[in-house]
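G., before I forget:
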Amino acid sequence: MRSDLGIATNPADPFDLRARRVHEAEGRGRRAFALFQAARHPGPLVWILPSHAPELPMLRGLPRGVGERLHLFRPMGETDLLWCIEEALRAVPVSLVIAEPEKPLSLTAGRRLQLAAEAGRTTGLMLIRQEAGSNATETRWACEPLASQPADSTLHQWALNKNKKGTLGRWVLNWNGTSAAFHMVSEARQRHEPAETAP
Amino acid sequence: MALADARAMCPDLATRPADLAREAAALASLRRWASRYAPMVATDGVDGLMADISGVPHLFGGEEDLREDLQARLERAGLHAASAIAGTRGAAHALARHGGGIVPDGRLAEEIGHLPVTALRVDHDTAEGLSRMGLLRIADLIPLPRAPLARRFGQGLVLRLDQALGAQSEPVAAEPDAPHFGVRMTLPEPIGLQSDVMAGLARLLDRLCAKLAQHHMGARRVRLELRRVDRGSAQVEIGLARPMRDPARIAALFAKGVDEIDSGFGIDAMRLTAPVTEALAPEQVSGQIGGGTSIRTEDALADLMSSVGNRIGFERVLRLLPATSLIPERSFLMAPAAYSAPEPTPHRAGSNRPITLFPPEPVTDASGTPPASFRWRRMRFTTLRAAGPERIAPEWWFDDPAWRSGLRDYWRVETQEGPRLWLFVTPQAQSWTGPQDANWPATAGAQNWYVQGEFA
């Protein structure tokens, strides 16, 4: 409930993941989204990825303060991976669990992870492949990097496609990947109302 | 006898280099065995044992019987040893190395008088000096005035003589036994239920942890051995993410292993050992003070590491540590989290780095430097903006197969499609293939572009 209130009182920041729930992110920019969330969660972080996954987080490229809090689990096999996720979610001191399951989560597995997250008061973020989401997830984000015309910005388009307790949305923001700070990019649009003229 | 002389006499002589470490280990175990004769047993040099048998001989029927018993047991074990019993440590040492025997009380000077002066544990120079003076036996030294003797040969000789004759006391300095972290329990009736085994384990753990706490140690691995009534045995071993001596938390890690063992007709003995231990200072018990929560957080995190490590292996629970290398693959280490501490990431300097790194994947259809368009992972990308090059030279002192292609020029390429990629080209490999394949200069160059990372 507290996080719900937090969203309500701080409408400018729609990227707060609801605490004690498991969320999903898909798309090419899902790892950037995960690191953005990691920078916003103080406390120990756990990143669970299969042992044969070639893509590893690179320490020098991570946002400031994330590298020393990060623990990598590299289990073999999907069963061990799910077990690791559940165990990490159940651990109270961990603040955010990022996991990259290979196969779509079944409803049972997804629900079990939600219960574990509630028991451990931990937030979870599954980095899933396209169309591999679970119905039990709290929110699902589609994250894509965007090309930016000005040279000094790194644009991301993060769309909230599924939300169990709120509205959907689509945001373009400029986040350079070094800290938790970001800038919303206002959407260019056609103006329908007449321009205000100075009296 | 020198080895060359021995070889000359017996050409077929089999020789082996001395293994001092194993000899010392054998002597240490012999010392442990010898504690059946005396409470205080110390090693005496590299080849002897010294036992303080005051008040013991009557238990074996006298000094002669004790010595015979000792000799017989050593003989049966295949060890040829000489032994002596004397009123002082020095005399026993001297006599054991020159025939052995028993010195009756009060006859020290007479019994060891015929031994050479080298038996007195004096250094080589002193012994040589004494023989040059014509003082060959201990009996020759006893009547001499002490002051000139000490002035000529030093206080050491006089001290050794006094110690051998009992004028100076010399205790048997038995070193303390290394604490053994193992406890056992035998049961009057065999047990088979998991809850019974866990209850027994809890009792053993209480005792083991009390012992660990007494020696300020923490267990790193704990092994539970269970003996079944049919003489079979089962074993459960767990690792701990950090030294620990908290019974409840260690017991929780055993639950899975105990669940899997087959108790057969029942278990009638349990043995719990801590084969690997590390020093663990006593922790301050803090209630409401601020340090309490952080210690509890650390404990809970260590518990997570232990349980995950016991299931997937401790080498798969990793932590990223910074390393001093410019090579991207070696700019960080993945160290087992149970055996490393977090290190702060150094201040980032120079050009930025991607968030994910993977083994280089070749790019096709690349044209130009940097490529204006290319195909990667079956997708077409058009370059919007490229920053670089950043040249990274291989570390010549490591022969890394991945870096045999020489220098790499890294580019940060922002694509029209969105992804910001870390591309590199290997100019040295290009220049080699160029002249050889004159017909294929463009494609040979194009093949040398790779993607190695993705930026945020």
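Chain A is about 25% helix and 25% strand. The radius of gyration of chain A is 18 Å.

More on Monday.
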